Amino acid sequence: MRRLIASRPVRLALAVALVAGVAAGLVVVARRRRAAVPAAPAPQAPRPAPPQDAGYPARRGPEPVLGWPTSEDLERYDRPEAGAPIARLLDGLPRIERPRGRKARRWTAALVALGLLVLTSQLLETAVFRPAAGTPSGRAAYAGGYAEPVPAVPSPDPVADVPVAQPPPPSPDPACALRRTGSTTPAVRPISRPVTAAVNRQWRRIERWLKAHAPKTYASLNKPAGARLVAKAEARIGRPVPDSLRASLLRHNGARGTAAFQLPRKHAIMGARGLVSSWPEVCQMGGGIPFAYSSDYDDYLVTNSATGGVGSADGDLPYFEDEWSSYYALLKATADALAEGGPVGGSVPVVGEGVLEWK
Question: Which of 105, 116, 178, 212, CA to CA, is 20 to 30 A from 42?
């Protein structure tokens, strides 16, 4: 049918006519069946009405148990408060007649037939005008067709299509891995008294200055670390920590908070645990033992476990150069700069809101 009639409106009109013809046929069949129904029997003659009283209207139905009311009864109960005025008022209004049952059924049947006609038309339209397989739709249909698929052009160089294997990342140096101490307690190495006294003397100078000029930084200094904790840190990194740095950890085990004490060039000092956690990363930079970190420069202050020299190390340089001969030399230069206001490593101490900074 779709091939014979190309016009869509014509096909839709034919579908509607077909549905209308079917509906008309159903109506004709229903009328013929109704005409074939036999006529109802003739009604029987009504029974004679019982005697009526004078002035009483015609009675209907069976006689009540208490008998029919007389005119005197009706006159006695005909009172205004009993609803008689409402009855008189309603008598003047036109009577509303009920719609005939046959007419109502006809209208209902017509509405149902109309609904079925619309529904059937929609179903027929969907079935008749369904697009054929392969018909373009969307943007291709709007353009008047659909684009031909572009064949894949093979690469002239077959080697170019083969993914190049990336080299594996370099494995970490086993020498930079942390050691496991197990259940054994590492031996505590003694520190000479002159080294301990010299380190404590410089710390007392720094503490007095911080307490007077930078109280927030002074409050950030941690308590001393235990000798066993420092010995365990040495065992974990597998390197001996120079005596001056160990003596400093036994005085203050690093600093905490945003106002933490910093050595020159904005390097916040770390405790024994920070030293251990930073060791694998710093070891790849040259093998120094870290004791301070700068978030601004992203580098560490480290000390050489063999010579005791102190310098900076970062990821760009796989080695570090000694800037101070020892940790004690850096600590003394810091105390001198705080007391005299001179520069250390190109930085001068500045205090702002009770916090020490290096500019």
Answer: 105
Rg (CA), the chain: 55
Residue 218 has pLDDT above 50, yes or no: yes
Q: Which superfamily does CATH assign the domain made up of 194-358 to?
A: SMI1/KNR4-like (3.40.1580.10)
pLDDT at 46: 55
The CA distance from 10 to 16, in Å, is 10
Paired tokens of 255: 């600093």
**DSSP classification of residue 295:** T
Name the amino acid, one letter, at 310. V
267-269/289-294 β-pairing: antiparallel
pLDDT recorded at residue 141: 41
CB-count exposure of residue 243 (10 Å: 0-12, 13-18, 19+): buried
